[in-house]
Structure formats: C-alpha cells, structure tokens
Amino acid sequence: MLFNSHVFLFLFLPVTVLVFFRVAGRGHHQAAVGWLVAASFFFYGWWNPAYVVLLVFSIVFNYAYGMFLYRTRRRVGSRRWLLGGGVAVNLALIAYYKYAGFLVANLGTLLDRSFQIDAIILPLAISFFTFQQITYLVDASRGETREYRFLHYCLFVTFFPQLIAGPIVHHKEMLPQFARNETFRVHYSNLAVGLTIFFIGLIKKVLLADNVAHYVSPVFAAAAQGHAPGLQEAWVAALAYSFQLYFDFSGYSDMAIGLARLFGIKLPLNFNSPYKARNIVDFWRRWHITLSRFLRDYVYIPLGGNRKGPARRYGNILLTMLIGGLWHGAGWTFVLWGGLHGIFLVLNHLWHGVSRGRPRSVARGLDWRGWLARLSTFLLIVMAWVPFRAESFDAAWSMLLGMWGVNGFAAASDPALAIELGPAFRWILGLFLLCQFAPNTQQLLARFRPALRYPSSTSNSPRLEWRLSWPWAVGLGTGAAYAILNLVEVSEFLYFQF
Description:
Layout: H1 6-25, H2 29-45, H3 52-71, H4 76-111, H5 126-141, H6 150-158, H7 160-163, H8 171-178, H9 188-212, H10 217-224, H11 231-262, H12 280-284, H13 289-300, H14 310-328, H15 332-355, H16 368-389, H17 393-403, H18 421-437, H19 441-444, H20 470-485
C-alpha cells in the first residue's frame, strides 16, 4: 500500500487514526498499541501477504535474542560471539533475499560456469527493518536497552509511517514515546501539523517528482540499449533524475513524519535540504541522515573510525561507503556509486586537513565562494547519481561521456533519445531554484518542532512560517486537492527499491 494511493488516503489512514484514538480514549492503551501493530502488519501485507511471515520471524527472533543478549551482557568473553550470531542471522536473511541472485551471477562469471537460481522476490523494506533491529541487538549486548514490552517492540519495528523506507529509527527514540500517556490523547495541534507535513510531502511526490520523471527514463533506457546521448540529453536526464530522486525521497520523508505526528509520535529528521550542502561531508549530514548515522555508529566506528591513523581512517571511510552503496542495491553500479562518494569524502577530509589553520576572509555582500562550493558539490552529486540510476556500467559510461561532451552536443536525431528539451529545461531550472532558495518543510514548521534532532528551533523565513490561518489552509488545501486529482497512475517511491 502506498501513501499516495486512494485506498490509503480515503480508507486505511482515517480508519486507523479513528480507531486508535477511540480505543485509547477509553483507557485501553495496550489495545490501542495492538490495533496500530495490526494495522501496520496489514499495511505491509497489502503488498505481499506471504512476507508477513518473514517480518514476524524477524521480530520474534530479534526480540527474544535481544532479551538474551541483555541478560548475558556481563559475559565479557562470549558477548562478542553471541552478538555476532544474532547479527549473522539478520545478515543471512538480507543476503538470501537481496543478494543471492547477484552473488550467484558473479560467481558464475568468475568460474566461467552457468548457475541457475529460482527468481527471488525482494521483500519490501527488508533492509530497513533488518538494520533497525541490528542496532537493537548491538545496544542490547552493551546493556543500553531494557526489557521492553513485546507489543511495543512490534510497534517499534512495524510502525507503518516509517516501515517501508525509513527513517531507520532507534529504540531509544521510539519506545519511550509509545509508553507515554500523552501519546494516546487526541491533540488537534498534532493533527493539524501532521496533515500539513503529509500534504506538503504528497505535493512534492505527485506534482514535482512524478512530473520531472518523464525526462529521465527515455534517455537512461536508450543508453542501456546502446544509444549515445548528446550533451543536452545527458545533462537533462541526469539533472531530471537528481531532482526526481530529491523530491521523491523528500516527499516520502515528509509524509512519514506527518503520519507519525498524527499519532503524537516524532520521527527523527531524515532529509534536510541536501542540495544546499557546500561539500560532500555536509551532503551526508543532510541526505538520508539516519542511514548515515547507522553507517557511522555501526560500521565506521567499529572498523576503527579515525582512531588508528589517517591511512586507516580513509580506508574505513571507503569501505563504509562501499557497504552503503551495496545496501542500496545488489549491483556493481551501486558499489561504484558508493565508491565515488567514498573517494569524494576522502578528498574532502584531505582538503580540510590541508586548509586547517589558514586565515579565512570574512564574506561581504554576495558569498560567491560559498555559492561556488555549493554548485560544485551539486554537480559532483549529479554525476555520481548516473551510475546509481543506470542499468549497467556501459549505460553509465555512455551517459557520462554524453555529459562530458564526447558524444556531441545533441543527439535529437536519434528517436530513442527524443525528449522535449524546452519544458525539461524549465522544470530543471524551477526545481533547482526551489531547492536552493525555498525553506524546507521543517523550517516552515520549526515552531512546532516536527522532527527529532532538528538543528534549529526557529525558521529562517518567518514570513513563510506555517500557522493556522486561512491563506495557509486555502493554499495547502488547493495543492493537496490538485495532487490527489493527479493520482491517476500511482507510482512507487524510488526508495522502495532499496
């Protein structure tokens, strides 16, 4: 079931919210939690009921094993082995469902043999709910958890606003909120804030991401079939995909935060205007923030972080980003994308090391150095998105050659590459300006602190701050209605693939 579908908007969501508060209002808090868990399982099973069994197994195993790790945490000698066993079970599930075909295909290529494996349908959200529970096991082995109620743990894993594509939440963030009495009371401010954020996200997804997507697939598909895009087509497709992914993921993140707020729950911030970043380090503090946190705390730091010298530090950065790339998909193009970002991060840290201590001039008037840093970072990110989107190395290379002008200025004579460049340029320019100059959703609603760990308590655009007013109600209502009327062909969120 998709957030941008009629059945979700007009049936699932209102029924789930009404029943939750009706039951909670009678003092049956655990029954209300049970209802929300059941609704979340139904939401997940709508896609493929068979994989509800896998989700149940994952929850039961990790809850029981986490309790076991917590109770045996003082067995210092065996703690690491016990934790490794639990993590191995989780990784084995991901390895089978997500990477089995990829591993078998590459093994066959390496040995020059043909291996057959039945098609495996990737269970929705397996990477998200598995990584989420790995953090729980690690913290349980450290004694940083406690013996939570099983029903609350189920809700921590299955809570439908964040189940499918994140954010990757932490038990310390969510489980205490499920235990508060305040969560089970109707607060009309939460409903107003939650619906506002949800509809802003819906508008981003339906009216922005889905519309600019029309300029992406034709060129990337043609490149996969051996056609050579020219400079114009290649840049239009790469930029259009960059904005499609941006507003698709930003829209989903807003919708998840808004839906959770309807129930009085705050999710962690997962998206914070990443195309305003001035360097790659800053970008990864803004893009998929909870994944960056997971990779830092549970991959980079355990590898040694920056504690064992510069060479080891840069090797750890590269390895962490390669793992992050592979997390996104079972393909070498994802590994390449992760490797590129790893190289960018290493170069960024090297530059910071060289430039540290140099006097910095105070910017007066237009901060052209800041804008140059922002633009160059953006262009690097756009080029790195090419292998992320491309179907193969050859297709990615063809696209990059086109962007570098090797394939000529234009390839419009090739019917496979024919796109309307005029409307595409207008879309790209408009979305670029929106990304660079418009306040983001959290800034618009900063006074209401819509997400956990939002870096600022006030908006930098006070005139645009959201408030309960007729102009906001009419404007947002019109935009939401227009988005709903455009739900003719419902499209999945791009991060559902990962």
